[in-house]
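Customer ticket, subject: "Can you confirm the structure for Carboxypeptidase-like regulatory domain-containing protein?"

Message body: Hello, I'm evaluating your service for our small team and ran a test protein. I'd like someone to confirm that this is what the system normally returns, since I don't have a reference to compare against.
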Amino acid sequence: MEARIITLLRFCFSVWLLTFLMASPVTAKSLPTENSKDPYQSFKGRVINSVTENPIQSAHINVKGTTISTISNVDGEFSLKLPADMKDALISISALGYQTKELQLDYFKRDNVIIAMQESVQELAEVNVYTKGDATDLVRRMMYNRDENYVNDEALMTAFYRETIKKGNRNISLSEAVTELHKQPYLSNKDDDIAILKARKSTDYKRLDTLALKLRGGPFNTLYIDVMKYPQFLFDMDKLDLYSFQYAEPTKIGERTLYVVDFEQRQHERPWYYGKLFIDSKSYTLVKAIYSLNTENRQVASRMFTSKKPNGVKVYPDNVQYQVDYRENNGKWFYGYGKADLEFVVNWKHKIFNSRYKVHSEMAITEWEVANLIAPHTEEFIKPAIVMVDDIKGFADVDFWGSNNIIEPDKSIQNAIEKIQKKIGD
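Agent reply: Thanks for trying us out. I re-ran your input and got the following:
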């Protein structure tokens, strides 16, 4: 089991620390030209706690009766783009631990839209009955019900991907893309494929002291977090005995009651996983997972993540966190959002101070449909070893994304984008 996990991490969740290099750019698939015959309307807002007024991150904003959706950023902000002829849409806003809210589209046709969410009232008597049992049995049932609970057809999904690298608190690299995700059935042995529809990137190598820390894997970093499609990368049905599972306090999403299960690997000799599973109390579907990798064993952790580095440099991960959210449509669940946050320490020989790099990648499904997929030519798919800052070219103006739904950038990234756009305009 450990060897399989290490293989994945070396293959995808790895970084390069090396002198600046160039590579041939990826060719994105062609999209219809934005014009007056293809208009859209755009709305913005902010999701907050109704009592504390703190922002709510990872709230799902969905157009009822459609597969159009987006997600709120770390500041609770979101943008939503709809076809111009959609006049009477009902918008659903949901978040873990909060009551789901539904609002007419007219509500968003104003300035400074604020959506205040109320925390869910816990009525969990029937849930507590089940907690007298073994949490491992619940997880085993969750895994057993994959075929019944998750989309068992091929699906064509549109997703927005963002990847940032910071040195200290300064943004040094930004890559974004609208992707087409060819999602295979959840019990299929076939891997998912990704094609890039539209992308932009910018890298300030002057802030890297002649070195570039780069993330290998691009959108695959967030795709492989889908533990129900790729359970071998966390725990298989026959490997559950390698973990301990304990019940935590239940919670809700809207009116849906969720079991919460804490888990961790039993063996701690090597880097080991621990986290929380949020499981629907009626269907036993995994709705959300948040987990981390303990990296106290620096030597092994460094080998797991570092693909290439110069002599005289030690680099190791100091903080590794993942999140995956699933969404439901017509009784079936599917991958909706994935996030990976990695922090690395870089120590130079004979230098007193080290450098810290933060790598953040996230992908949100913004639209999807069940389809009998016709696979495009091989060259239109990106490879799991892609390095976005090398293989994607260009940056553009504020209207670059057109009618595509994206994750709103947080304030730090927005400042970096504005500086890039100003530089382009000069």
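A couple of notes from the result: The chain is about 15% helix and 40% strand. The first helix runs from residue 2 to 11. Feel free to reply with more questions.
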